[in-house]
Every structure is written in C-alpha cells, then in structure tokens.
C-alpha cells in the first residue's frame, strides 16, 4: 500500500467535512466517524506493510519527495493512529458532531502528523510541521469562548512560530551548504560541510524542535496550552503532538548528525536533564490538576530527550518505548482528570475530594496511570525507565540517570497528593453529572494498552520490534540504503 | 529463576508465619473487612516471598517496591501523612538501588543477586539501608512503626525491615568494617532513644533499630558464623518483636492509649497478656535459654576478635534490659496517670491472644531447640558453657540493678525526643524556597521567554 494514503485520508476528511456542512448537514456525524476509522486503519496498514521508500511522481530522490516507512516511522505511525483515534472518540463525546470546524482542524493535524512521520524530505518536513502547528494552535484555543484558551493558543502560536523560524533557518543553511533537501542524501553530504555551518544547522534544528516538543527553554507554551485546552485536546497534545516533534528529533539527530562526534548528544543529555528536573519540580508545586499533568509531561519529554541523548540503539529503543508508555498513561490521566474536574466544576486539587466514592473506576484508573508514569514496578513506565537507565549507564551519563531516578520519588509525591484528595472524604457530595461511557471505555482501553506495554519486554515480536527500531535508527545506513537503492 | 537456597526458604517461611500471626491478630469478620484488612497483608506476604525468591537485583527491587505498596495501603488506615512518609522513604531507597543496579547491569545482562563491585557497594548499602534503617536513614521507622495499625507494625518490624537485611546478607561476602561500625552505632543509638520514649510502640520501634544493629554487626563480619548468627537473629527478632508489638497493640485496645504514663494496670486486668509480654521481653533482653540469648551468644562469638564491638553490644544489651524493665513496670504494674484505676474499656479478643500465643510458642521453641539440637554452628554445648551464661547474665542483672537503684531516672517522661525525623519539615522548607523562585520565574512575559530561548541557542552554538 502506498504510504501516501496515510497522509491523504485525513486530508480528504479535512476537506470534505466543510462540503458536507454546505451540502449534506446530516452526513457530518457519520462522515467524521468513518473518516476517523479510515484514517486509523490506513495508518495501521501502512505501518504493517513493511519497510519501503516511495518517491512521489517518479522523480529522482534528489528532486522528488520521498516517503519512507522504516521501523522508527512504523512505531510512530502506530502511536499516532492510537492517540488520534482515542482523542477523536473522546471528542465526539465531549463536543458532539456540531462543531465541524474542530474536526477539520483535527484531521488536518492528523494528516500533517502522518506527513512528518513519513516524509523523507527536509523541507517537506518543515511544511508538514507548519500545517500541524497551525492546526494545533487553533485546536488548543477551541472553543474560542474562554480568554484563557485564546491566550494559551496565542502563546503557542508565538512560540511555535519562533520554533518554525529556527527550523527554517536550519533547513535553509543545510540547503545552502549542500544543495540537497532529501534527508538520505543529506546524511551523506552534510558531514562534509564546514564545521561552523554544521554547528549552526544543528543548533537551529535542535532548538526549533526543542520549542515544538516543549523541552526547556522552549516549554513555556506547554503548561498553558495543555491546561486551558479541552480535555480531548489536552490528551492529544500530550499523547501525540509532543511525540511527533520528538520523532523528528530522533530522526534528524541520528540521520544527519549521528557521526558529528556526539556533541549534539551531549546537548540533548544536558537539556533533557534540565527539562526533567524543571518539569518535576514545577509539577510538584501545582494546585491545578491539569497544570500538574502538563508539567509532568514536560518532565517526561525531558526523560525521552535524555534517552535520545544516550546515542545508542538501547537509548532509542528506550525513547520509543517510553513515548508509547507516556502516551497510554498521560492520555488516560488527562481524560480522567477532565471528567473529575467537570464533576467538581474545578481543577483545584484541594476541591477534588471524595471523588473515589463518586467514580471509583475512573479514580482507580487514575491511580494505575499515575503509578505507571511515576515508574512503580512492574508497570510499563517502570520498564521503559529501566531500559533508559541501562542505556544511560552504558553511555556513562550518571547525572541524567540519577535525575531520572530522583524524578520517580518526586512524581510519586505529587501524584500521591492528587490521589489522596480523591480518596479523602468530602464535605459535599459532587452532583452527579452526565455519565461518560465513551471516555470510560477509552480509559479502560488505554489501561489495557498500558498492561500490554508492560509485558512488551517479554513478548518476542514486540521486544524484537523495539530493538530493531533502535538498531536501524542508530546507524542510519539502512535508511539511506533504502532510499537510494 | 534458580532453585531457592536455604536462606530464601527460611525467609519465605518467616514471611508466611508472620503474616499468619498478623492476620490472626487483625481478625477480620465479614467479607468487606476481609478485603480491607487481610488482603493487603497477604499481598505483602506474596510479594515478600517473590522478593526472597528473586535471582537478580532487578526482580528483588520489583518485589521490594510492590511489598512496600501493599503495606502502604494498610498503614494508610493508621495515619495518612505517615503512610506517605513511609512510601516516599521506601521509594527513595528503592530508587537508589535501581540506579545502582542499572549501573551494574550495563553491558551484560541483569546484575545477579549477590555481591557487587566495590564501586557500587556504598550505593547498594545506602539503598538497602533505607529499608534496614541504618543510622540517618532510619528517619521513617519510628513514626511509621508507632502510627501504623498494630498488625502492620508487627509485619513491618518482623519482616519488612528484614528484607533490607536479606539484601545485605546477599550483598556482603567479606568483612566490612564500616558496616560493623554502623551496626554498633545503630545498636546503641536505638537503645538510648528507646530509653527516652514514653509511647510504647515508639519504644519498640527504637528497639527494632537497636536489634537490627546487632544483625548488621553480625553480618558485617562476612564469615559463615556471622551470617548464620545474623540469620538466626533475623528469625528470633521477627518472632519476639512481633509478639511485643502485638502485646503493645493489645494494651492500646484495652485502655485506648499507648502512653506509658497512662497505662499500668494491665498486670491485674490481663495477667495472660503480661505473661506473653514477659516471653517477648525476656527474649529481647537476652535472658538465658531464650531465642535472644542464643542469638546474642552466637553474634558475640562471631565478633570474638573485635573486643570493642562486643563491649558496645553488651552495653546495648544492658540498655535493652533497662528499657524493658521500664516497659514492664509502667505498662503493667505502676500507674502514673489515673490513680483510681478504671476497668479496661475494651478487650484484645481471642484471636489476638491466639496470635500472640503462636508467636510466644515459636519464640520459646526457638530458644530451647538450640540447647539440644546442633541448630547453630557452635553446637549446643557452647550455649550452656558457664562463660556464655555469665556473659549473657551481665547485661541482664546490670540492667535490672540499675533500674532498681535509680527508679526516678527511668520514669516515662512527657514530650517527644528529637530525632532525624524532626529535621524533615525544616529541611523540606529549606528545599522548597528555591522552588518558589522557580515558580516566580515563570512570569508569563513573552520577551523573557524568547530571550531565554535565544540564550539557549547561543549556548548550544558555543558547545557544538
């Protein structure tokens, strides 16, 4: 199956939903569901189709746009498909099918995400990043009624634009130095560029991706965006959007700068550690549950950046594994927190008492996800943390490893605060608002996904797959060979 | 998983026995009470057994953390804040262990449970030390043991801290002078603190630290004799300390207080309880022909070439006798508070007596068997040698004499005695101050943020 279908299907959805609004209003609801299923299935089929590289329009790789499916993009395609479908189902329950503009933006961001994951062309990557970001700014500010959401969207817009600027400068310099935009070709010729040029290219690309992914010092937009957005959007932001930028970070650092004597990885280790510490310490001080989760996401981004900075196959495998685990757990946490905050009509942790008696299953799921994120054995978060620690130890990165371990205790402390509030008795019973069957089902599925992921090191195909992602990506030779065969 | 050796099997048997006694004491009636009270205890037992069966440090840590979590749910019912302290303290210890294990596991498979390289040794000792309450790392223990529900106090003192000792037993394979020093310091510090307490369970908690000091000192020799002595004392201490905690808990059930200032009538009201307490107290004081006596004789002979260490342990033994004279006197016979002596307001119940009786029988059994069977490497005769009897009687007689001569000195006091745990709150506040700065630095001013990003960019250019 041609990989381009995974990009085209969501685009098709985004462009036909307005047409349905004009011509067949009654079809909007069913078309959203059908397009959602179609996009997810096509992404999964492309992922299952095995490795290949397709040059669009039959041009040479130097001129045409390449789409590449390799083990890393397979993993992230699956991640995006799972995350987007979970978020879409939650959104249909939260918003209904009325706000069709939201779904247009949603499918646009899905298409752009798949594009970022599949493209083999540096400029094309930038273009997809722009589509993705524009959709994301608007999705965050949706519905444009509360000024917090608009302010958060505006902040995201400013930061995203600065990040895009740096990305563009980096790509432009790379193009000026080599005359190439195809990533596989760049991987061969870029190392021959002058050293100063190379460091400017690396610096600009890395800082641009830091801003997009919410790594310190580009994290300032993230807590606002996550906490002010609607629940399904927060889950999507944390579960998928942040991971896409991390995918680009893995891809570019290893493919383009993998043999730049490892200095870029030192930068990643440094900034990852700072991000991790800052995220945990800030989360520790939050009173707002969604802000707490948002800062916890910052900390987890730091963890994944550290894993990338380990510059080894094991590190990449740990990063991808942790990205999946974080997706499963943090999406679940945001969904549960959204439901509970709605019951109490407040996001203040001190107000969220007595919710265990009110919604026991949701609260228990929250405990499970929180324990997984904090890294309590034998849950999935612990497993990926263990592989990360081993990779860091092999790299000799003791301080980042110690920070990861200390983060466990801190995150247990702040999640315990929230959980204690849920379990403690309340003065007033929360009013019983509407039930959330769809959100509940998604939360259960995410919990199940978490349990499967916890067993991943013991399930042969999954383990082999993760290790293959690591070994394929760390050298880059396989990727280059496939594109330029 | 490899075949479990005798050490693992003994630990598993101990875990099962202690859990049976604890759940007998908890005595849940009805289905809901079963799930609430007993299920966490047996879950703890399950994870404790898995920990004892672990063949790598990683699986050891997994078992350790899971057992911590299951006890956390029990302690939560006693006191919320204490349970959080317990969980976070144990998580910190396990995190240090995990870090050390990851360092040891790089480039070549999981680190097998056993001795590790010299560089990692201190990290492992710190990680296990939180569990085993080494000096300075014991900050969680007195509060947790005293605030937890009684059945979990017995399990905590009887088994949970022993998991740290089990780890140390696997870790130490040669003489380790620093560990010996730590052991002696623990033994003495625990006793001194215990003498100053007036809360019965807190007093017992400090004795746990003190007795763990004996065990750590024994295993720090690294000799087979020392290891056997440590293991024997692990079992003996679990049994008699479990018994003592349960009898303190029964006193609390009877009179609604654990304060030695408020007690002092149980000798008349519940003579059976006093008898059971006496079994435990004589064992911990090292009265001849009890399990504590046998353990201490073997420990001392393992440390025979360390004169000062033996002297330190003798001193600790003397303090132990004093402290239990005080407990027995003010807990059961001499009432300081309410002179009139009201009748008890509750009853420990049959199941509590059954649990204590079980532990008392096991304690007596463990005291008598080594006299006939060569259970210990020294043989039965060594325990009956006049020299050993004199050695065992010195702290006993000395302590009792001191208590009789200076009774005012050892009266239970009011108020609390400072310990490391009192430093936790100020230390936390000190650490939180820079955090407030971090929070304030997130001003929401976009100019500042973008300036920071540019600064980071320049820093990255510079480092590349």
Average of pLDDT of chain B: 88
- What oligomeric state do the depicted chains represent? heterodimer
Poorly predicted residue ranges of chain B: none
Specify the number of helices of chain B: 19
* Percentage of β-strand residues of chain B: under 5%
Helix content of chain A: over 70%
Distance between the termini of chain A: 19 Å
* H and E order of chain B: HHHHHHHHHHHHHHHHHHH
**Overall geometric form of chain A:** globular
Report the uncertain regions of chain A. none
Tally of helical runs of chain A = 20
Main pleated sheet of chain A: 2 strands, antiparallel
Strand % of chain A is under 5%
> What structural class results from the helix and strand content of chain B?
mainly alpha
- Number of E-type strands of chain A: 2
Task: Outline the structure in words.
The complex is a heterodimer of chains A (485) and B (464). Chain A has one domain (4-483). In chain A, strands 1-2 form a two-stranded antiparallel sheet. Chain A is 77% helix and 2% strand. Chain A contains 20 helices and 2 strands. Chain A is globular. Chain A has 485 residues and is mainly alpha-helical. Chain B is mainly alpha-helical and 464 residues long. Chain B folds into 3 domains: 1-171, no CATH class; 174-417, no CATH class; 425-463. Chain B contains 19 helices and no strands. Chain B has helices spanning 6-26, 31-53, 57-78, 80-105, 121-132, 141-147, 150-171, 177-195, 200-219, 224-255, 266-269, 271-285, 291-302, 307-333, 350-372, 380-384, 386-405, 424-440, 446-463. In chain B, helix 1 (6-26) runs antiparallel to helix 7 (150-171), helix 4 (80-105) runs antiparallel to helix 5 (121-132) and helix 8 packs parallel to helix 14 (307-333). The radius of gyration of chain B is 24 Å and the shape is globular. The chains are: A mainly alpha (485), B mainly alpha (464). Chains A and B meet through helix 6, helix 8, helix 11, helix 16 and helix 17 of A and helix 3, helix 4, helix 18 and helix 19 of B.
